[in-house]
Design a protein that fits this description.
Layout (H helix, E strand, L loop, with lengths): L22 H19 L3 H8 L1 H25 L1
Helix pairs in contact: 1-2, 1-3
């Protein structure tokens, strides 16, 4: 049986901390906070709604790039 502290290539990707927080997740959390600020504090509802769409875009792009990375690793392994 393998050592439980060993990490596979996929688990040990750059930019990921031990609890799975990536820069994309931090940017998404920040944009949610910014959207709430614009919507409730500044009263600019249109800008708050616009900024509220950013997390979806950020996380979608991060998922796309992660899938491309996994696809490349699998292709290299099959060679």
């Amino acid at each position: 049986m393998s050592n439980p502290t060993e990490k596979t290539k996929i688990e040990n990707t750059e930019g990921t901390t031990a609890d799975g927080i990536t820069p994309a997740v931090l940017a998404s959390i920040g944009s949610v906070a910014l959207a709430l600020y614009f919507y409730y504090v500044r009263g600019d509802k249109q800008r708050g709604q616009f900024v509220g769409f950013w997390p979806v875009t950020i996380l979608s792009l991060a998922s796309y790039f992660k899938l491309q990375e996994i696809k490349q690793m699998l292709a290299e392994r099959d060679e």
